[in-house]
Each structure stands twice: as structure tokens, then as C-alpha cells.
Design a protein that fits this description.
5-stranded parallel sheet; 10 strands; 5-stranded mixed sheet; alpha/beta
Length: 282
Amino acid sequence: MNSTNALYIVATPIGNLEDISKRALDVLQKADIIAAEDTRHSARLCQYFNISTPLTPYHDHSNEQQTQRLIERLGQGQNVALISDAGTPLISDPGYRLVKTARDSGYKVIPIPGACALVAALSASGLPSDRFSFEGFLPAKSGARAAKLDALAKDPRTLIFYESPHRIEDSIRAMGDAFGAEREVVLAREISKTFETFIATTFAELETIFATDANQLKGEMVVMVHGYLEPQSDTPGISAEAEKIMAVLLAELPVKQAANIAAKITGEKKNQLYSWALEYGK
């Protein structure tokens, strides 16, 4: 560990304890204090690796005084390590206020990379991974959940959600309503644990799986949804969007003028739009 004191953001295993890095163990062993989401849970991790560093609670309900106590320790030249129950802190876990306060106060904040459920799940999902959006946990209330999903319905990126066993059925049903029952979805369950499972299917089929196999409702879950794809036109060379625009323009304008305007709006080639109009538009 660097001799300069800092706040260390330490990733811990999401299942298999052997996934922790040597560097993470070194930081946890040498830190002056470990701020943990649940000290009882983290005590088992420390016991397994013979880490004797004192633990102090730091969670979503931590108040400003708890944040300031940790900042004061940094001011005293101590090293503080922040961990969550599993995975990388701040990813749907506590820590934002502490990190911001530490940075604003001029202290170094050093990440110790490691396990992250969303990254592990996406890497093995088979879904596009060049562009994705992590949406965390959906709202608990049905109205807010539906509004959130409706806003994401035409997002072209792979969408990633965390979900808990007692809400997974309601969430999958709501996703199917918002995204369409045949949208591709991958459910990753219990990653790096004994009963790790990946199910690649559709929302309609996933509901059937839940109804026939209660085991698929257990454990920590990552839900990944294929991004929105524009419907393909029945006519080669012109998109469904262009068809709609051309239909509106042709009702008021000559074919050539309609094709010119549609090309500017859609970015498609004028000659293809013109040919479509001659064959299908009128």
C-alpha cells in the first residue's frame, strides 16, 4: 500500500471468495479501518482471510456524522477502506457521499478493481456489449416501474438491471409489457456461486420458466435486455421510418420533391426513396 493515506474503494467477491485480488487483501489487511455496508456480513470475509482490521458500518442510511468521522480519520493520516456486501462499492451500493466528500476535502481516492456483477453477467450473456446502460434496481411501485421501463423501451443499448427474488416476477412481467413479449432477455443468477445459471430467452418464455421452476426465482439476479431494433421494412433499401415519412409527403407533394425532403430527414438515398415511391407510394 502506498505510504500516502487515502480512501480505498475495494471490490470484494460476489460469490466465490477466491475471486478477491491479492492487492485487495493487502489493502484490507493494512488499512486502519474498513467501512462496510454490513459489518456482520463482512466479518465473515475478514475471518476467512485472517484480516484483523477493525470494521465500522457505512450504508445507505449513514448520516453526515458517520461520513465526517471517516473523513476525520483521513485527516489524522489513516487509511480507510470502503467495501460493500459484494462486488464493487457504489454500483447500486453505498459510498457516493463519502467518495465525494473525500475528494472535495483534498484526499486521494484509490479504486481497487475487482468483481462486479453487471460486468461479469454481460461478458457471458451473448448480448451486444459495445454499448450498454446500467439501470440498477427498478422502482418498487408498479406505476413508477412502468414509467421507467416505457422511457427505455426504444433505447438501442443493451439494458442491465439488478433484481431481487421477491420482485423478479413482477419486474419481468413489467419489462415484457414495456419492451414486448418477444424481446430477447438474459437472466444471470447466482454468478460465481454453486448454482450459477444463465437463461437466454424471451420475456414470454421466461415467465413460463418461472411458473414451472421455482428454483429460478432464487438468488441474486442480473437481468439483461437486448436493445431496441427498428422494425425492418418489407421493401429492401428503405426503412420503416422512411416509408411513414414518404407516405405523408406523397399525400401533398410530387414524387421527386417528396423524395428530396425525405432524404434530408432520414439520411437515406434519394434514388431509393424515389424508386420506392414509384412502385409502392402511389
